[in-house]
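hey m, so remember when u said the tokens were messed up on ur end? i reran from scratch. heres the input so u can diff it against urs
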Amino acid sequence: MDFEALMQTSDPSPEQAPTAIAAAPGVATGRLVANAAMLGSMVVLVKLVAFGKDWLVAQRFGASDEVDAFLVALVLPSYAIVVAQSFALAFVPTYIRVWHGSGAAAALRLTRGVLGCAAAALVLTTIVLVPLAPLLLRLIAAGFDDEKLALTLRLLYVLAPTILVAGFSSVFASLLNAHERFRAAALAPLALPAFTLVLFWLGRERYGIYALAVGTLVGFAAEFVILGLAAHRQRLLAWPTLQADENARRVGIQYVPVALASLLMSSSMVIDQSMAATLASGSVATLSYGNKMVSLLLGIVAASLSTVLFPRFSKLIAAGRWDELKQLLRTFGQLIFALAIPAVVLLIVGSEPLVRLVFERGAFTSADTIAAAGVQRWLAPEIPFYILVMVGSRLLSALDAYQVTLRIGVLNLVLNVVGNYVFMSLFGVKGIAMSTSLVYVAATVVTLVAIRFKLAERSETPAATFDSVSP
């Protein structure tokens, strides 16, 4: 694969402001769909490689204690990574406004301050996490015995550095996406499953589950290198500094509610796996296998659309083009349901055959297939609602409605805990899947209502006019 060619796209030169909005809304929408389709195709490639890795893990370990331990060990780093990746929600709107309003030099100063603050925060997070890991794991994996918990802790120590490299990767990807240089940012995640697959395949017999952990760490590091080189080639990077300017401090202030909201919104991952760990052995692995195909579709559609739409939302808001923004929302809302509903039906009707085709071999038994298919069947209905929440949260961030997203995160947390407790007591691990789907239905309703009120409020306030954004 020619990585250089993929990084050298036809995007505007970095001396220019982030790509201007086209004068014709139809043309702009067409370009957004094309970019989303391009990103989606790259996500498919990433997910296919990830499926190869999952297939190999399933063949070697099935739904075993080793897989349970690895998945729980990955929870804390993943949680920290999600918080780091949410940084883009505070950074990108400010970055675009600074570039359009004050020029490239001011945007570069903002980037320097942001990189310096991010480095300090990521190092501190990693340093704090390591000594606290034994206590935190006892809370998260309360159902694990001592041997299983010790394995989980050792795997966590291997995975801890992923927080640092993945956090920097999220900043690099934010810069590339702000300039609508989507190809490099979409290509880089391929490194994670590819390196994990290769290193696990080479070391699975000798090193067992540790080969999976090392492969994951190396994959995150490779993604960091690819994104860093891509941002450097586009001349978007500067040497980090802790002397943040006013704009960098504003991003930091805005990031606090964004980070809290992301912690709460993504809490379903930690809560679901922690509560699954209290059920029968292998329940965490069953929940994970049942989520594989659902997460594939969500990665293709939700990640692609939210990535493409977020900078566009910010530019339309900066230009005060409210009618075009509302039309964009209606168009993509209809597109989301048109794409999602057939996928939901397919996953529900063909759940067991699909799981059997992908996973049932080696240590993954027919009983594992039935259990994972039941989880998948109840996770499938979340698909359109999850996508709407992802896109809606990006719009709320572009509208600077950070406190609103924080309140929605609190609601999600409460509904998820209560729903899991009620449904898992009745249906076991499938009940956790039921609860997840219901949480996203509720979150969608609240998010859309919040967007309606926020748009009505902001559209009455005159926006700054930037020549590079105006038609």
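this time it looks ok to me. The first helix runs from residue 3 to 7. if urs says something different then somethings off w ur setup not the seq
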